[in-house]
Amino acid sequence: MPAPAFRTTPPTQTATRLSPTIFPATNTPVFTVTPTPPTYETPDWFKQGVLYEIFVRSYADSDGDGIGDLQGITEHLDYLSALGVSVIWLMPVYPSPSEHGYDVTDFFDVNPQYGTLEDLRNLVESAHTIGMRVILDFVPSHLSDQNPLFQEAYGNPDAEKSDWFVWTNDAHTQYAGFADNREMPRFNHYQPEVVEYLIDAAKFWLDLDGDGDLRDGVDGFRVDNATFPPKEFFVSFRRAIKAANPEALLLGEVWVDTPTNLSSFYEDQFDALFDFPLYGLLQGNQDFNGDGLLAGKGFPSLLSALLAEEVEKYPPKAIVTRFLSNHDTNRIASEVSGDPARLRLAAALSAGLPGPVMVYYGEEIGMPGTKGGPPYWDNYRREPMDWYTGESGPDQTSWFQPQDRWNRPDDGISVEEEQADPDSLLNAYRLALMLRGEYPALSSGDLEIVDLEVSGQGPWGFVRSTGDQAILAVYNFSLEEQTFTVQDFPFEAMGLIDLLSGERYPPANAGEDYSLTLPPAGALLLSAEE
Predict the structure, then answer these.
(1) Domains in the chain, number
(2) Residues 6+ apart with CB under 8 A from 233
(3) For residue 148, how many C-alpha atoms fall within 13 Å in the half-sphere facing its CB?
(4) H/E element, 240
(5) Are 93 and 110 in contact (CB under 8 A)?
(6) Domain presence at residue 38
(7) Which listed site, 376, 380, 381, 494, has its alpha carbon 20 to 30 Å from 482?
(8) Nearest Cα to Cα of residue 321 among 371, 270, 365
(9) Residues with a known catalytic role
Protein backbone atom coordinates (compact mmCIF):
# COMPACT_ATOMS: atom_id res chain seq x y z
CA MET A 1 0.00 0.00 0.00
CA PRO A 2 1.29 3.54 -0.57
CA ALA A 3 3.00 4.49 2.69
CA PRO A 4 0.53 6.62 4.71
CA ALA A 5 1.42 9.54 6.91
CA PHE A 6 0.89 7.60 10.13
CA ARG A 7 3.74 5.18 9.38
CA THR A 8 6.79 6.19 11.36
CA THR A 9 10.35 4.98 11.44
CA PRO A 10 10.88 2.05 13.79
CA PRO A 11 12.62 3.41 16.89
CA THR A 12 16.22 2.51 17.54
CA GLN A 13 16.46 -0.95 19.06
CA THR A 14 18.24 -1.47 22.35
CA ALA A 15 20.72 -4.32 22.66
CA THR A 16 19.58 -6.65 25.41
CA ARG A 17 21.33 -9.95 24.58
CA LEU A 18 24.84 -9.94 23.16
CA SER A 19 26.02 -13.44 24.12
CA PRO A 20 25.93 -16.26 21.54
CA THR A 21 22.34 -17.39 21.03
CA ILE A 22 20.94 -20.45 19.27
CA PHE A 23 18.14 -19.73 16.78
CA PRO A 24 16.27 -22.90 15.74
CA ALA A 25 15.60 -23.56 12.06
CA THR A 26 11.96 -22.56 12.63
CA ASN A 27 13.33 -19.23 13.85
CA THR A 28 11.18 -19.47 16.94
CA PRO A 29 11.13 -21.09 20.39
CA VAL A 30 8.28 -22.76 22.18
CA PHE A 31 5.83 -19.92 22.80
CA THR A 32 3.33 -20.53 25.58
CA VAL A 33 -0.02 -19.06 24.61
CA THR A 34 -3.59 -20.21 24.49
CA PRO A 35 -4.31 -20.07 20.76
CA THR A 36 -7.75 -19.44 19.39
CA PRO A 37 -8.82 -22.81 17.96
CA PRO A 38 -8.58 -24.11 15.38
CA THR A 39 -4.87 -23.79 14.62
CA TYR A 40 -3.37 -24.38 11.18
CA GLU A 41 -0.13 -25.60 9.69
CA THR A 42 1.96 -22.97 7.93
CA PRO A 43 2.80 -23.80 4.29
CA ASP A 44 6.10 -25.70 4.05
CA TRP A 45 6.63 -24.43 0.50
CA PHE A 46 7.19 -20.87 1.71
CA LYS A 47 9.45 -21.45 4.69
CA GLN A 48 12.70 -21.09 2.74
CA GLY A 49 11.27 -19.39 -0.36
CA VAL A 50 12.63 -16.56 -2.46
CA LEU A 51 9.77 -14.09 -2.94
CA TYR A 52 9.92 -11.59 -5.82
CA GLU A 53 7.65 -8.55 -5.66
CA ILE A 54 6.37 -7.26 -9.02
CA PHE A 55 4.56 -4.02 -9.80
CA VAL A 56 2.81 -5.31 -12.91
CA ARG A 57 2.56 -1.86 -14.52
CA SER A 58 6.34 -1.47 -14.46
CA TYR A 59 7.62 -4.95 -15.17
CA ALA A 60 7.20 -6.14 -18.76
CA ASP A 61 4.98 -4.90 -21.60
CA SER A 62 3.94 -7.59 -24.06
CA ASP A 63 1.60 -5.52 -26.27
CA GLY A 64 3.58 -2.32 -26.85
CA ASP A 65 1.35 0.15 -25.01
CA GLY A 66 4.08 1.08 -22.51
CA ILE A 67 2.23 -0.50 -19.58
CA GLY A 68 3.35 -3.76 -18.03
CA ASP A 69 0.98 -6.70 -18.20
CA LEU A 70 0.52 -10.27 -17.06
CA GLN A 71 1.62 -11.78 -20.35
CA GLY A 72 4.87 -9.83 -20.05
CA ILE A 73 5.57 -11.52 -16.70
CA THR A 74 4.82 -14.93 -18.18
CA GLU A 75 7.38 -14.24 -20.91
CA HIS A 76 10.02 -13.53 -18.25
CA LEU A 77 9.55 -16.60 -16.05
CA ASP A 78 12.88 -17.96 -17.31
CA TYR A 79 14.61 -14.81 -16.04
CA LEU A 80 12.96 -15.21 -12.63
CA SER A 81 13.83 -18.89 -12.48
CA ALA A 82 17.49 -18.15 -13.28
CA LEU A 83 17.50 -15.58 -10.47
CA GLY A 84 16.36 -18.24 -8.00
CA VAL A 85 12.81 -16.99 -7.46
CA SER A 86 10.36 -19.54 -6.10
CA VAL A 87 7.36 -17.29 -5.37
CA ILE A 88 6.02 -14.28 -7.30
CA TRP A 89 4.05 -11.59 -5.47
CA LEU A 90 1.89 -9.54 -7.83
CA MET A 91 0.92 -6.11 -6.57
CA PRO A 92 -2.81 -5.41 -7.14
CA VAL A 93 -4.07 -6.72 -10.48
CA TYR A 94 -7.68 -5.58 -10.00
CA PRO A 95 -9.51 -2.86 -11.94
CA SER A 96 -8.70 0.48 -10.34
CA PRO A 97 -8.76 4.20 -11.21
CA SER A 98 -5.22 4.65 -9.86
CA GLU A 99 -1.81 3.58 -11.09
CA HIS A 100 -0.91 1.81 -7.85
CA GLY A 101 -4.11 -0.23 -7.84
CA TYR A 102 -4.81 -0.34 -4.11
CA ASP A 103 -8.20 1.33 -4.57
CA VAL A 104 -10.15 -1.56 -6.06
CA THR A 105 -13.28 -1.12 -8.17
CA ASP A 106 -13.89 -4.86 -8.74
CA PHE A 107 -12.49 -7.58 -6.48
CA PHE A 108 -13.44 -10.28 -9.01
CA ASP A 109 -11.68 -9.16 -12.19
CA VAL A 110 -8.34 -8.13 -13.72
CA ASN A 111 -7.37 -4.58 -14.66
CA PRO A 112 -7.85 -4.51 -18.48
CA GLN A 113 -4.56 -2.61 -18.80
CA TYR A 114 -2.87 -5.73 -17.40
CA GLY A 115 -4.80 -8.24 -19.48
CA THR A 116 -7.57 -10.70 -18.74
CA LEU A 117 -8.46 -13.42 -16.29
CA GLU A 118 -7.22 -15.87 -18.89
CA ASP A 119 -3.83 -14.11 -18.91
CA LEU A 120 -3.62 -14.54 -15.14
CA ARG A 121 -4.64 -18.19 -15.41
CA ASN A 122 -1.91 -18.70 -17.99
CA LEU A 123 0.69 -17.01 -15.77
CA VAL A 124 -0.24 -19.12 -12.76
CA GLU A 125 -0.31 -22.34 -14.79
CA SER A 126 3.03 -21.54 -16.44
CA ALA A 127 4.60 -20.73 -13.09
CA HIS A 128 3.28 -23.93 -11.53
CA THR A 129 4.69 -25.94 -14.42
CA ILE A 130 8.23 -24.86 -13.47
CA GLY A 131 7.66 -25.24 -9.72
CA MET A 132 7.03 -21.55 -9.00
CA ARG A 133 4.17 -20.18 -6.89
CA VAL A 134 2.11 -17.01 -7.37
CA ILE A 135 0.47 -14.91 -4.65
CA LEU A 136 -1.75 -11.87 -5.11
CA ASP A 137 -1.94 -8.62 -3.19
CA PHE A 138 -5.27 -8.67 -1.35
CA VAL A 139 -6.76 -5.43 -0.01
CA PRO A 140 -9.35 -6.16 2.71
CA SER A 141 -9.29 -2.83 4.55
CA HIS A 142 -10.80 -0.53 1.91
CA LEU A 143 -11.93 -0.12 -1.70
CA SER A 144 -12.22 2.62 -4.31
CA ASP A 145 -14.77 5.38 -3.94
CA GLN A 146 -15.63 4.51 -7.55
CA ASN A 147 -16.51 0.93 -6.65
CA PRO A 148 -20.25 0.37 -7.33
CA LEU A 149 -20.65 -1.06 -3.84
CA PHE A 150 -19.65 2.25 -2.32
CA GLN A 151 -21.32 4.48 -4.87
CA GLU A 152 -24.66 2.81 -4.17
CA ALA A 153 -24.32 3.53 -0.46
CA TYR A 154 -22.83 7.03 -0.63
CA GLY A 155 -25.40 9.62 0.47
CA ASN A 156 -28.03 6.90 0.74
CA PRO A 157 -28.53 5.62 4.32
CA ASP A 158 -31.35 3.37 3.12
CA ALA A 159 -29.17 1.54 0.59
CA GLU A 160 -28.93 -2.24 0.96
CA LYS A 161 -25.19 -2.03 1.71
CA SER A 162 -25.19 1.25 3.60
CA ASP A 163 -23.70 -0.38 6.70
CA TRP A 164 -20.76 -1.87 4.78
CA PHE A 165 -18.72 1.29 5.35
CA VAL A 166 -17.59 3.49 8.23
CA TRP A 167 -19.70 6.65 8.04
CA THR A 168 -19.07 9.67 10.22
CA ASN A 169 -22.34 11.51 9.62
CA ASP A 170 -25.99 10.49 9.39
CA ALA A 171 -26.30 11.52 5.74
CA HIS A 172 -23.57 9.04 4.75
CA THR A 173 -21.56 11.68 2.94
CA GLN A 174 -18.62 11.69 5.35
CA TYR A 175 -16.64 8.55 6.01
CA ALA A 176 -13.37 7.04 7.22
CA GLY A 177 -10.78 6.49 4.53
CA PHE A 178 -7.40 4.80 4.42
CA ALA A 179 -4.89 7.34 5.79
CA ASP A 180 -7.75 9.88 5.68
CA ASN A 181 -7.89 9.47 1.89
CA ARG A 182 -11.43 9.97 0.58
CA GLU A 183 -10.59 7.94 -2.52
CA MET A 184 -10.25 4.81 -0.36
CA PRO A 185 -13.29 4.31 1.92
CA ARG A 186 -12.90 1.86 4.79
CA PHE A 187 -14.93 -1.33 5.02
CA ASN A 188 -16.98 -1.96 8.17
CA HIS A 189 -15.57 -5.35 9.17
CA TYR A 190 -18.13 -5.79 11.93
CA GLN A 191 -20.79 -6.24 9.24
CA PRO A 192 -20.94 -10.03 8.59
CA GLU A 193 -21.81 -9.50 4.93
CA VAL A 194 -18.54 -7.61 4.43
CA VAL A 195 -16.59 -10.50 5.90
CA GLU A 196 -18.43 -12.95 3.66
CA TYR A 197 -17.87 -10.76 0.60
CA LEU A 198 -14.10 -10.50 1.17
CA ILE A 199 -13.80 -14.23 1.84
CA ASP A 200 -15.69 -14.98 -1.37
CA ALA A 201 -13.36 -12.65 -3.28
CA ALA A 202 -10.29 -14.44 -1.93
CA LYS A 203 -11.76 -17.84 -2.77
CA PHE A 204 -12.41 -16.65 -6.31
CA TRP A 205 -8.67 -16.22 -6.89
CA LEU A 206 -7.88 -19.58 -5.29
CA ASP A 207 -10.21 -21.18 -7.87
CA LEU A 208 -9.19 -19.34 -11.03
CA ASP A 209 -10.64 -21.86 -13.45
CA GLY A 210 -13.97 -22.00 -11.61
CA ASP A 211 -14.04 -25.79 -11.28
CA GLY A 212 -14.57 -25.74 -7.51
CA ASP A 213 -11.01 -26.88 -6.72
CA LEU A 214 -9.50 -24.08 -4.64
CA ARG A 215 -5.99 -25.51 -5.01
CA ASP A 216 -5.38 -24.78 -8.69
CA GLY A 217 -5.51 -20.98 -8.66
CA VAL A 218 -3.15 -18.56 -6.94
CA ASP A 219 -1.20 -19.91 -3.98
CA GLY A 220 -2.18 -17.34 -1.40
CA PHE A 221 -2.15 -13.66 -0.58
CA ARG A 222 0.04 -10.84 0.60
CA VAL A 223 -2.53 -9.07 2.77
CA ASP A 224 -2.32 -5.28 2.57
CA ASN A 225 -2.65 -2.92 5.54
CA ALA A 226 -3.28 -5.68 8.05
CA THR A 227 -3.15 -3.34 11.04
CA PHE A 228 -6.56 -1.79 10.38
CA PRO A 229 -9.18 -4.55 10.12
CA PRO A 230 -9.96 -6.00 13.56
CA LYS A 231 -8.45 -9.26 14.71
CA GLU A 232 -11.86 -10.92 14.59
CA PHE A 233 -11.98 -10.35 10.84
CA PHE A 234 -8.61 -11.95 10.20
CA VAL A 235 -9.40 -14.92 12.45
CA SER A 236 -12.54 -15.57 10.40
CA PHE A 237 -10.71 -14.89 7.15
CA ARG A 238 -7.93 -17.33 7.92
CA ARG A 239 -10.36 -20.01 9.08
CA ALA A 240 -12.26 -19.78 5.79
CA ILE A 241 -9.15 -19.70 3.57
CA LYS A 242 -7.51 -22.64 5.33
CA ALA A 243 -10.73 -24.63 5.10
CA ALA A 244 -10.74 -23.98 1.36
CA ASN A 245 -7.01 -24.67 0.84
CA PRO A 246 -4.81 -25.54 3.83
CA GLU A 247 -1.69 -24.84 1.75
CA ALA A 248 -2.70 -21.27 0.85
CA LEU A 249 -0.29 -18.67 2.19
CA LEU A 250 -1.43 -15.69 4.25
CA LEU A 251 1.43 -13.17 4.41
CA GLY A 252 0.58 -10.03 6.35
CA GLU A 253 1.79 -6.47 5.90
CA VAL A 254 1.95 -5.48 9.56
CA TRP A 255 4.10 -2.37 9.68
CA VAL A 256 5.01 -2.24 13.37
CA ASP A 257 8.33 -1.74 15.07
CA THR A 258 8.99 -4.62 17.48
CA PRO A 259 8.62 -8.41 17.58
CA THR A 260 6.47 -7.98 20.69
CA ASN A 261 3.95 -5.98 18.68
CA LEU A 262 4.13 -8.38 15.75
CA SER A 263 3.77 -11.58 17.74
CA SER A 264 -0.01 -11.46 18.27
CA PHE A 265 -0.64 -11.36 14.50
CA TYR A 266 0.92 -14.81 14.18
CA GLU A 267 -1.26 -16.56 16.71
CA ASP A 268 -4.36 -17.10 14.58
CA GLN A 269 -4.28 -14.53 11.78
CA PHE A 270 -1.25 -15.07 9.49
CA ASP A 271 1.23 -17.74 8.49
CA ALA A 272 3.96 -15.21 7.74
CA LEU A 273 4.77 -11.56 8.35
CA PHE A 274 7.33 -9.19 6.89
CA ASP A 275 10.23 -8.45 9.21
CA PHE A 276 9.72 -4.70 9.54
CA PRO A 277 11.82 -4.50 12.73
CA LEU A 278 14.81 -5.90 10.81
CA TYR A 279 14.11 -3.52 7.94
CA GLY A 280 14.22 -0.64 10.40
CA LEU A 281 17.73 -1.58 11.50
CA LEU A 282 19.08 -2.26 8.02
CA GLN A 283 17.51 0.67 6.19
CA GLY A 284 16.40 3.18 8.79
CA ASN A 285 13.61 5.56 7.79
CA GLN A 286 11.80 4.44 4.64
CA ASP A 287 11.74 8.03 3.35
CA PHE A 288 15.40 8.91 3.95
CA ASN A 289 18.70 7.49 2.70
CA GLY A 290 22.00 6.70 4.36
CA ASP A 291 20.62 6.20 7.88
CA GLY A 292 20.61 2.40 8.25
CA LEU A 293 23.10 -0.31 9.08
CA LEU A 294 23.61 -1.20 5.42
CA ALA A 295 24.83 2.37 4.88
CA GLY A 296 27.33 2.02 7.73
CA LYS A 297 25.24 3.67 10.47
CA GLY A 298 24.36 2.08 13.78
CA PHE A 299 25.50 -0.94 15.77
CA PRO A 300 25.42 -4.54 14.44
CA SER A 301 24.96 -5.83 17.98
CA LEU A 302 21.37 -4.63 17.69
CA LEU A 303 20.84 -7.38 15.11
CA SER A 304 21.73 -9.97 17.74
CA ALA A 305 19.28 -8.41 20.17
CA LEU A 306 16.53 -8.28 17.54
CA LEU A 307 16.93 -11.91 16.46
CA ALA A 308 16.91 -12.98 20.10
CA GLU A 309 13.69 -11.07 20.69
CA GLU A 310 12.09 -12.70 17.65
CA VAL A 311 12.97 -16.13 19.01
CA GLU A 312 11.52 -15.20 22.37
CA LYS A 313 8.27 -13.65 21.13
CA TYR A 314 7.18 -15.53 18.01
CA PRO A 315 5.21 -18.81 18.10
CA PRO A 316 7.01 -21.98 16.93
CA LYS A 317 5.72 -22.13 13.36
CA ALA A 318 5.87 -18.43 12.55
CA ILE A 319 7.46 -17.58 9.20
CA VAL A 320 9.57 -14.41 9.24
CA THR A 321 10.03 -12.83 5.80
CA ARG A 322 13.21 -10.77 5.40
CA PHE A 323 13.38 -7.87 2.93
CA LEU A 324 15.58 -4.87 2.08
CA SER A 325 13.05 -2.59 0.37
CA ASN A 326 9.59 -2.63 -1.15
CA HIS A 327 7.16 -0.45 -3.10
CA ASP A 328 6.53 1.80 -0.07
CA THR A 329 10.20 2.45 0.74
CA ASN A 330 13.21 4.06 -0.84
CA ARG A 331 15.16 1.43 -2.76
CA ILE A 332 18.23 -0.17 -1.23
CA ALA A 333 20.45 1.23 -4.02
CA SER A 334 19.47 4.75 -3.02
CA GLU A 335 19.88 3.99 0.67
CA VAL A 336 23.57 3.11 0.09
CA SER A 337 24.18 5.77 -2.62
CA GLY A 338 24.70 3.10 -5.25
CA ASP A 339 27.83 1.73 -3.54
CA PRO A 340 28.51 -1.60 -5.35
CA ALA A 341 30.15 -3.17 -2.29
CA ARG A 342 27.20 -2.34 -0.06
CA LEU A 343 24.73 -3.68 -2.60
CA ARG A 344 26.67 -6.95 -2.62
CA LEU A 345 26.72 -6.88 1.16
CA ALA A 346 22.93 -6.66 1.10
CA ALA A 347 22.72 -9.63 -1.28
CA ALA A 348 25.07 -11.67 0.91
CA LEU A 349 23.00 -10.87 4.00
CA SER A 350 19.88 -12.05 2.18
CA ALA A 351 21.66 -15.30 1.40
CA GLY A 352 22.65 -15.90 5.01
CA LEU A 353 19.62 -15.06 7.14
CA PRO A 354 17.04 -17.77 7.90
CA GLY A 355 13.48 -17.66 6.64
CA PRO A 356 12.08 -16.55 3.29
CA VAL A 357 13.77 -13.61 1.61
CA MET A 358 12.03 -11.05 -0.60
CA VAL A 359 13.55 -9.26 -3.58
CA TYR A 360 11.80 -6.14 -4.89
CA TYR A 361 11.87 -6.10 -8.69
CA GLY A 362 14.94 -4.27 -9.99
CA GLU A 363 16.74 -4.62 -6.66
CA GLU A 364 18.85 -7.35 -8.23
CA ILE A 365 20.26 -4.94 -10.83
CA GLY A 366 20.69 -1.99 -8.47
CA MET A 367 17.81 0.21 -9.63
CA PRO A 368 17.67 3.39 -7.52
CA GLY A 369 14.45 5.01 -6.36
CA THR A 370 13.55 7.59 -3.73
CA LYS A 371 10.13 9.00 -2.94
CA GLY A 372 9.47 12.09 -5.04
CA GLY A 373 7.23 15.11 -4.71
CA PRO A 374 3.74 15.77 -6.04
CA PRO A 375 2.02 14.61 -8.05
CA TYR A 376 3.92 11.34 -8.55
CA TRP A 377 5.23 10.56 -5.04
CA ASP A 378 5.85 6.79 -4.85
CA ASN A 379 6.02 6.31 -8.63
CA TYR A 380 9.72 7.15 -8.28
CA ARG A 381 10.08 4.00 -6.18
CA ARG A 382 8.17 1.97 -8.80
CA GLU A 383 9.83 3.03 -12.04
CA PRO A 384 9.87 0.72 -15.09
CA MET A 385 12.03 -2.38 -14.80
CA ASP A 386 15.27 -1.59 -16.64
CA TRP A 387 15.73 -4.39 -19.16
CA TYR A 388 17.87 -2.55 -21.71
CA THR A 389 20.88 -0.25 -21.88
CA GLY A 390 18.89 2.42 -23.72
CA GLU A 391 15.57 1.81 -21.91
CA SER A 392 14.07 0.65 -25.19
CA GLY A 393 13.35 -2.81 -26.52
CA PRO A 394 10.87 -5.69 -26.46
CA ASP A 395 8.76 -5.74 -23.29
CA GLN A 396 10.30 -2.53 -21.90
CA THR A 397 7.65 -0.50 -20.08
CA SER A 398 7.58 3.28 -20.48
CA TRP A 399 4.50 4.47 -18.58
CA PHE A 400 6.57 6.60 -16.17
CA GLN A 401 9.61 8.39 -17.58
CA PRO A 402 9.67 11.98 -16.29
CA GLN A 403 12.80 14.06 -16.74
CA ASP A 404 13.65 13.73 -13.04
CA ARG A 405 13.34 9.94 -12.88
CA TRP A 406 16.08 7.93 -11.20
CA ASN A 407 16.72 5.29 -13.89
CA ARG A 408 18.16 6.48 -17.19
CA PRO A 409 19.65 5.12 -20.40
CA ASP A 410 23.30 4.07 -20.41
CA ASP A 411 23.62 4.28 -16.63
CA GLY A 412 25.16 0.83 -16.27
CA ILE A 413 22.02 -0.45 -14.56
CA SER A 414 19.99 -2.86 -16.67
CA VAL A 415 19.61 -6.56 -17.26
CA GLU A 416 21.21 -6.16 -20.69
CA GLU A 417 24.31 -4.47 -19.24
CA GLU A 418 24.69 -6.90 -16.33
CA GLN A 419 23.59 -10.24 -17.78
CA ALA A 420 26.96 -11.34 -19.16
CA ASP A 421 29.20 -9.53 -16.66
CA PRO A 422 30.38 -12.05 -14.05
CA ASP A 423 31.10 -9.21 -11.62
CA SER A 424 27.68 -7.54 -11.94
CA LEU A 425 25.19 -7.12 -9.12
CA LEU A 426 22.70 -9.25 -11.04
CA ASN A 427 25.09 -12.18 -11.00
CA ALA A 428 25.93 -11.52 -7.34
CA TYR A 429 22.21 -11.91 -6.56
CA ARG A 430 21.98 -15.03 -8.68
CA LEU A 431 24.89 -16.55 -6.78
CA ALA A 432 23.57 -15.53 -3.36
CA LEU A 433 20.12 -16.96 -4.01
CA MET A 434 21.58 -20.08 -5.64
CA LEU A 435 23.65 -20.74 -2.52
CA ARG A 436 20.47 -20.67 -0.41
CA GLY A 437 19.05 -23.44 -2.56
CA GLU A 438 22.26 -25.45 -2.81
CA TYR A 439 23.30 -25.49 0.85
CA PRO A 440 20.78 -26.86 3.39
CA ALA A 441 22.64 -25.02 6.16
CA LEU A 442 21.63 -21.70 4.55
CA SER A 443 18.10 -22.67 3.66
CA SER A 444 16.99 -24.53 6.78
CA GLY A 445 19.86 -24.65 9.28
CA ASP A 446 19.94 -23.33 12.81
CA LEU A 447 21.59 -19.97 13.45
CA GLU A 448 24.07 -19.21 16.23
CA ILE A 449 25.59 -15.76 16.74
CA VAL A 450 29.39 -15.96 16.94
CA ASP A 451 31.61 -13.99 19.28
CA LEU A 452 33.85 -11.57 17.41
CA GLU A 453 36.71 -9.80 19.14
CA VAL A 454 36.69 -6.44 17.40
CA SER A 455 37.99 -2.93 17.92
CA GLY A 456 35.40 -1.30 15.66
CA GLN A 457 31.63 -1.42 15.27
CA GLY A 458 31.47 -3.11 11.87
CA PRO A 459 31.77 -6.91 11.90
CA TRP A 460 28.91 -9.17 12.90
CA GLY A 461 28.36 -12.83 12.16
CA PHE A 462 26.72 -16.16 12.79
CA VAL A 463 27.05 -19.80 11.88
CA ARG A 464 24.29 -21.66 10.01
CA SER A 465 24.38 -25.41 10.51
CA THR A 466 22.42 -28.54 9.83
CA GLY A 467 23.61 -32.14 10.09
CA ASP A 468 27.31 -32.23 9.14
CA GLN A 469 27.19 -28.94 7.19
CA ALA A 470 28.11 -25.58 8.67
CA ILE A 471 28.72 -22.13 7.13
CA LEU A 472 30.19 -19.12 8.92
CA ALA A 473 28.67 -15.83 7.72
CA VAL A 474 30.47 -12.59 8.60
CA TYR A 475 29.53 -9.05 7.53
CA ASN A 476 31.43 -5.78 7.92
CA PHE A 477 28.85 -2.99 7.97
CA SER A 478 31.37 -0.30 8.86
CA LEU A 479 33.03 2.32 6.67
CA GLU A 480 36.52 1.00 7.45
CA GLU A 481 38.51 -2.19 6.98
CA GLN A 482 38.21 -4.41 10.03
CA THR A 483 40.58 -7.07 11.37
CA PHE A 484 38.92 -9.25 13.97
CA THR A 485 39.03 -12.62 15.67
CA VAL A 486 36.35 -15.30 15.58
CA GLN A 487 36.48 -16.64 19.10
CA ASP A 488 35.92 -20.39 19.43
CA PHE A 489 35.69 -21.14 15.72
CA PRO A 490 32.46 -23.12 15.32
CA PHE A 491 33.62 -26.09 13.20
CA GLU A 492 36.65 -28.04 12.03
CA ALA A 493 37.96 -27.42 8.51
CA MET A 494 41.12 -28.65 6.74
CA GLY A 495 40.65 -25.60 4.56
CA LEU A 496 38.01 -22.90 4.13
CA ILE A 497 36.42 -21.43 1.01
CA ASP A 498 34.35 -18.28 0.69
CA LEU A 499 31.25 -19.34 -1.23
CA LEU A 500 30.75 -15.78 -2.49
CA SER A 501 34.17 -15.20 -4.05
CA GLY A 502 35.75 -18.64 -4.29
CA GLU A 503 38.74 -17.38 -2.29
CA ARG A 504 40.45 -19.96 -0.08
CA TYR A 505 41.44 -19.48 3.57
CA PRO A 506 43.73 -21.43 5.94
CA PRO A 507 42.50 -24.39 7.99
CA ALA A 508 40.44 -23.79 11.11
CA ASN A 509 40.37 -25.76 14.35
CA ALA A 510 37.08 -25.96 16.16
CA GLY A 511 37.15 -24.10 19.45
CA GLU A 512 40.25 -22.04 18.64
CA ASP A 513 40.47 -18.36 17.71
CA TYR A 514 40.65 -17.48 14.01
CA SER A 515 41.66 -14.09 12.60
CA LEU A 516 40.08 -12.46 9.55
CA THR A 517 40.18 -9.13 7.76
CA LEU A 518 37.26 -7.64 5.85
CA PRO A 519 37.17 -4.48 3.75
CA PRO A 520 34.38 -1.93 4.27
CA ALA A 521 31.06 -3.54 3.32
CA GLY A 522 32.80 -6.90 2.94
CA ALA A 523 31.06 -10.23 3.48
CA LEU A 524 32.14 -13.85 3.80
CA LEU A 525 30.27 -17.15 3.68
CA LEU A 526 32.97 -19.58 4.84
CA SER A 527 32.47 -23.30 4.34
CA ALA A 528 34.78 -26.23 4.89
CA GLU A 529 36.55 -26.93 1.62
CA GLU A 530 35.55 -30.28 0.16
Answers:
(1) 3
(2) 140, 189, 195, 198
(3) 4
(4) helix 231-244
(5) yes
(6) no
(7) 494
(8) 270
(9) 224, 253
